[in-house]
Specification:
single chain; 255 residues; alpha/beta; Rossmann fold; four-stranded parallel β-sheet; 8 helices
């Protein structure tokens, strides 16, 4: 799940650094990329439900992970929560980057300055606006709309309800993030039955694109760890016992 205002192409840089066995599917959110002009969503539960339905529809029975950065981390969390609520199998890994847990005040406390700060406020929180935003008022508005919608969506998240999520977490952050503190990132462990040690990389809130290779390596390690004990689908080569082979994970062709 991409950060605020960004399209699925945000993750394109990661595809060449992940094993061939890992097939990357960037979910295109309304109002951006190829979906520019479609109505944006500001209701987290409604958007989470739409994305959960998409995952259920495309589920091949193979293991999968869900990854989200910044506001995309909240959307990823809500999507997995919807899947669990409906009784669908959760991902083997939920990887969350540069965002506070829903019950932590960090993000909400800083959001008013963003709303009042115009373009400067948005860029301090989410990074530089896309290059096309400088091509005139219409282009700037088309870039702002999904960013502001995602900010409003993030502010409407409520503390987690129900039992902790029973899926492996991975937590990533920037060492100099002025928005999300290490404590806020670690707060995700309060709603997981499988706590994770937060991993930090050089950079601020937009650290992700400056550390593509290192994060891809860390994500691959966390995916492999999450697959231990996973039973392969009947048509998967797997091991004789039916457990997915880590060797097969690294060698299976990209789909």
């Amino acid at each position: 799940m991409p950060p605020a205002g960004m399209s699925a192409s945000f993750f394109h840089a990661f595809t060449s650094h992940l094993p061939d066995a890992v097939s990357v599917h960037g979910l295109q959110l309304p109002g951006r990329g190829r979906a520019t002009g479609t109505p944006v969503h500001t209701d987290p539960r409604h958007l989470g439900q739409l994305l959960a339905d998409r995952i259920r529809h495309d589920d091949s029975g193979h293991p999968y992970a869900v990854f989200g950065h910044s506001v995309g981390a909240l959307i990823a969390y809500e999507t997995v929560t919807c899947l669990v609520r409906q009784g669908h199998r959760p991902p083997t890994l939920l990887a969350l980057s540069a965002m506070a847990a829903p019950h932590h005040p960090d993000f909400a406390a800083k959001a008013p300055n963003v709303l009042l700060g115009g373009r400067k406020g948005l860029e301090e929180l989410f990074g530089r606006l896309p290059d096309h935003a400088g091509h005139g008022p219409d282009a700037l508005i088309s870039a702002w709309i999904p960013m502001l919608a995602d900010l409003l969506l993030a502010l409407q998240f409520r503390p987690h309800q129900g039992p902790p999520l029973d899926t492996q977490f991975a937590l990533y952050g920037g060492e100099e993030d002025p928005v999300i503190s290490p404590e806020a990132l670690a707060g995700w462990n309060d709603i997981s039955s499988q706590p994770a040690t937060p991993r930090f990389f050089p950079g601020d809130h937009t650290y992700l694109l400056d550390n593509v290779e290192a994060i891809s390596s860390r994500l691959t390690t966390d995916i492999v760890t999450s697959l231990r004990g996973w039973a392969c689908p009947a048509d998967d080569p797997g091991s004789p016992s039916g457990e997915c082979s880590l060797g097969n994970l690294r060698g299976r062709p990209r789909s």
